[in-house]
């Protein structure tokens, strides 16, 4: 059993991008600790919890009924309510670096538009990723969560990301929204409200950012023809990355596959 630190956004999680890997990894017996910017339950974007939602770029339904029902059940059961704040340890004590990677075997960052707001570029998230990289822990990122890898810089050479020279999957430029995005959350409450802002599309073009991050000797995989029947997830040690919502299940399965091949940290 591996101990996995899962970072999710409080500004707009994409439902399936946590639900699918969560179900795959917990079914495999792994223990997942959720961590968020605010230290409260990561709520899905309302758009990602509407089975009638149509992908604005592809013109196809984007939320399978079973994903909606399963995510709703997870939220109602309180499965995602055990959350630590990025910047505190599990006891609630204030920390500069957040939960310590020494306590975990792996870290993963799931996507949704909100990930670009409170996870990518968050210096505490970057510190966790650099620690995981230095400790040879498995690092996973899905959809716009992949962007956090670009801001995690090699401590002995700040010019280079930890993914410099690696092969990384990134959300295609062709799929980037160029219309206004509303960060309305599913089942928001006064204690866990929807963010009061909109953005003119995604905050940054992920593919271009990752092409810069991997450098001339790295590779970015970004096929816009990716579908649920042909998802895109890739492992280049120690990174598991995947394209977008249609690859959520494949991301979880690839992450689980790599974990099975690794001896958990601290194991005899």
Can you tell me about this structure?
By secondary structure, the chain is α/β, with parallel strands linked by helices. It has a single domain (3-261), classed as Class I glutamine amidotransferase (GATase) domain (Rossmann fold), CATH 3.40.50. It is built from seven helices and 13 strands. The protein has helices spanning 15-27, 65-77, 115-118, 123-134, 147-151, 206-214, 248-261, and strands spanning 3-7, 31-36, 83-85, 106-109, 138-142, 153-154, 157-161, 167-169, 181-182, 198-199, 219-221, 233-236, 239-242. It has a seven-stranded mixed β-sheet with strand order 3-2-1-4-5-13-12, with helices on both faces. The longest helix is centred in the C-terminal third of the chain and has 14 residues, at 248-261. The radius of gyration is 17 Å and the shape is globular.
The ordered string of helix (H) and strand (E) elements is EHEHEEHHEHEEEEEHEEEH
How far do the termini sit from each other? Answer: 13 Å
What's the main sheet like?
7 strands, mixed
Spatial order of the strands in the main sheet? 3-2-1-4-5-13-12
Low-pLDDT ranges: 264-268
The overall pLDDT average reads 91
Secondary structure class reads alpha/beta
Task: Specify the overall morphology.
Answer: globular
Q: Please report which band the strand proportion falls in: under 5%, 5-15%, 15-25%, 25-35%, 35-45% or over 45%.
A: 15-25%
């Amino acid at each position: 059993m591996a101990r996995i630190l899962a970072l999710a956004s409080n500004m707009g999680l994409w439902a399936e991008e946590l639900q699918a890997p969560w179900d795959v990894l917990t079914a495999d017996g792994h223990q997942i600790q959720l961590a968020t910017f605010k230290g409260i339950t990561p709520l899905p974007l309302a758009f990602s919890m509407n089975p009638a939602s149509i992908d604005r770029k592809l013109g196809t339904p984007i939320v399978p009924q079973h994903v909606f029902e399963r995510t709703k059940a997870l939220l109602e059961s309180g499965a995602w309510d055990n959350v630590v704040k990025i910047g505190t340890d599990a006891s609630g004590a204030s920390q500069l670096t957040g939960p310590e990677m020494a306590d975990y075997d792996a870290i993963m960052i799931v996507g949704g538009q909100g990930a670009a707001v409170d996870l990518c570029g968050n210096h505490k998230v970057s510190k966790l990723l650099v620690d995981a990289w230095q400790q040879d822990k498995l690092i996973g990122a899905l959809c716009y969560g992949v962007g956090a890898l670009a801001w995690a810089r090699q401590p002995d050479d700040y010019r280079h990301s930890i993914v410099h020279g690696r092969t990384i999957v990134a959300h295609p430029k062709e799929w980037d929204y160029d219309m206004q995005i509303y960060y309305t959350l599913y089942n928001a409450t006064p204690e866990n409200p929807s963010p009061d802002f909109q953005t003119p599309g995604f905050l940054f073009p992920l593919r271009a950012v990752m092409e810069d991050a991997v450098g001339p000797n790295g590779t970015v995989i970004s096929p816009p023809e990716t579908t649920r029947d042909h998802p895109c997830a890739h492992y280049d040690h120690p990174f598991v990355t995947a394209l977008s919502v249609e690859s959520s299940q494949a991301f979880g399965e690839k992450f689980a596959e790599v974990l099975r091949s690794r001896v958990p940290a601290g194991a005899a």
